Amino acid sequence: MKGTRITYSLEELSWIETYSSLPRRDAYVAFIKKFGRADVSLDNLTALCKRKGWFTGRTGRFAPGSVPVNKGQKIPYHPNSASVRFKKGQLPYNTKFLGHERVTKAGYVLISIGEKNPHTGFERRYVLKHRYLWEQKNGPMPPGTRLRCLDGDRQNTDPSNWEVRLSKRPKRR
Known about the structure:
Blueprint: H1 10-18, H2 24-35, H3 42-52, E1 101-103, E2 109-113, E3 125-128, H4 129-138, E4 145-149, E5 162-166
Antiparallel strand pairs: 1-2, 2-3, 4-5
């Protein structure tokens, strides 16, 4: 009963401590059978054991070196699951290949090129398409310069639409 103090005799406490390694439900059934206490519930017995530090010894973890129950068994097969599994060599529908383009929030077009990304080490990286095409046609940009769009359309990546300007940004310290 909640809110009512339950007292246990010394004999009951020593019995509970002795059998505290049993699963709580089994210990509770045996306790009721031996002592006939109708006022003690499973929750009361569990709370008493926790307060006294009488644990069952089970941690919920596999001990080192223990063998899993399903070792050597095959995974259950359901025929409907085969239709949604990846086949060998199959790529996901959203795979991005070399040359893939995307548009940034600012309206610039990025293109995936076959250079190693210096930040992540991945085999491809995204660069600004207008700058990439301009450098392919005219060579590398001089330091301290940037490209400016002539017609105002940032998605027009034709090199003739872009001109080199001096950068007005202050140098970082």
